[in-house]
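Sequence in, structure out. Go.
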Amino acid sequence: MDPLDVLVVDDEPGVCRALEKILSSAGHEVRIAESLKQARTERLRRVPDVVFLDLRLPDGNGLELLEELKRDVPHVEVVIVTAHVDVNLARRSLLLGAVDLIEKPFVSSDVVAVVEGVVGLPRALREAGRRAAGALIGNSPTFVKACHDLVLLAASDKTPGLLFGELGTGRELSARALHDASSRSGGPFVAASCVTLTAPQLLGCEPRALPAAPDGQAGILERASSGTLFLGEIHELDLELQGQLLAVLQTGEFRRLGGLTPRTADVRIVAATHVAPKRLAEQAVLREDLYYQLAVMPIRIPPLRERGEDVVYLAQHFLKDQASSMGRNATGFSAQALRRLQAYPWPGNVRELRNVIERAVILAQGQRVEVAELRIGDESTGDPAAGGIRLSLPDYRVASAERALIRLALEETGGHKTLAAELLGINRATLYNKLKAYGLTPPRRIAQSKAE
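Output:
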């Protein structure tokens, strides 16, 4: 059995020591909290796999913590530890989601049996979670909840998914992790952006149906057969194609352009959008019936600013990866650099953090990355990627500020004009006019950001 992170919440030192000894001997990592306050602090610091919880604590009732855990991180298993079994209390605990109850004084074998027998998700889901863990890094409650939902969705073979998340949060990476954690992992993972997706690209075409493809061609629905198809920015998909995609989801069949014979779409479709559900409805950019067909289990990928210490975990991961690929000797961050990483709001999310760390590795002079080498939030640089724009006195004109904001939006979206217009709150025609007026040229879009 893989080692588990166990949190023991009890105000009796003897009970804590006994559980720590039993669980540590079984190979698990054990943390101790002697009050509700300490337990909440430990839970926010790192989400545990298992909680052994006493219901009578000096600063409150353990049921409060049980309710919080099952609301915020439902995959965490809670075992109630009590000196006297109260039938009503035990019933309430189990109704709230506790997995089991052990009575003090307990027997070592009972504790081990609880952990080995019932703790965690079902075996298939736990295996899926382990396979996904290599791609998804973080321990914050909001991120753990998203990962938990992804693992649950992975356990279903064909159920579609809809991921909500800001640009740069890792929606495509999450979809790929879902694919890798599912029974479809042996099949292909195909990603496409709906901004430029056409009917022939989605459905394919029969021979001689299109001059550009005289021999015919398979669409991404066929290329993703037995695997997963990820559709980025689903709200940008042409309305007619939305109807055809809906038919695929409802019937599992489609026709190539120019074809009469139905083909089977053996594929799980996972879509993503950076537009919130309420705004999707207000803007009427996504068919309501398609939304409900996709949103069987909507999953929100949280922005980096909501993920607390995950920033540090991710930064260390990117540092190790970039230093290795570049042959540099940077191995860590100074205390001041770590504080700056945690204080910065990360409007570009994980993508921005990755770029910042890559630049820092290039600039680093020693083994530790210093705060100046991060170049974030330093207004004196005038570098948009540094987190701020320095406007000199002559630049306090509206036109200069507007030009700078447009440039930032284009850089943030990788030159994607439709998404840049969305960020700026203007339509595409207005953006094109301003690009022409200010003489701005969007940065070249890179392949890895097309479906993000």
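Check: Residues 22 and 107 are 10 Å apart (CA to CA). Residues 120-127, 129-134, 378-397, 445-452 have pLDDT under 50 and may be disordered.
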